[in-house]
Amino acid sequence: MTTEDLMRRTWSKRYVVDETKLNCNGTLFGGEVMAWMDKVGHELSVELTHQTTCTASADKIRFRAPGYLGETVEVTAKPMELGPVKMIMELTAVADPDGEKRRVILTGLYTFIQLDEKARPHRITYFLED
């Protein structure tokens, strides 16, 4: 496996919008979706490294459409940059992914770093075995 193979990897997870995830407007709270995106991006960073990683930043967050009670939201992470000291993931949240009302509700770029055994930033080692 090569770094180019890792760049083609994606990671997705689905969530259901329930009452506890709504804001005062009755739509999906944006912070909840951002947390889902962070979790999915983190899971992909661990899959790519088999090491301890953490979020270093979240950038270019764009709220595009609301999510509604009862909807399924699919969050997908895709590598944008796999460098020696940071991994940048493109995260996308899509409401009603299999339905007629499919729409992107949130996008963003999340940066992850690898940590050593003392939780200090460490040069990234990618897992290149099958």
Features:
elongated; 130 residues; alpha+beta; 19% helix; 6 strands; 2 helices
Can you summarize this structure?
With 130 residues, this protein is α+β, with helices and mostly antiparallel strands. Helices cover 19% and strands 40% of the residues.
Q: What does this entry look like structurally?
A:
- The protein is α+β, with helices and mostly antiparallel strands.
- 19% of the residues lie in helices and 40% in strands.
- The protein starts with a helix and ends in an 8-residue tail after the last strand.
For the termini, the CA-CA separation is: 7 Å
Largest beta-sheet details: 6 strands, antiparallel
Helical proportion?
A: 10-25%
- Count the beta strands: 6
Overall mean pLDDT stands at 95
Uncertain regions: pLDDT < 50 for 5+ in a row? Answer: none
Radius of gyration: 16 Å
Approximate strand percentage: 35-45%
Task: Furnish the topology, listing elements before pairings.
Blueprint: H1 3-7, E1 11-16, H2 30-49, E2 53-63, E3 72-82, E4 87-95, E5 103-115, E6 121-122
Antiparallel strand pairs: 1-3, 2-5, 3-4, 4-5, 5-6
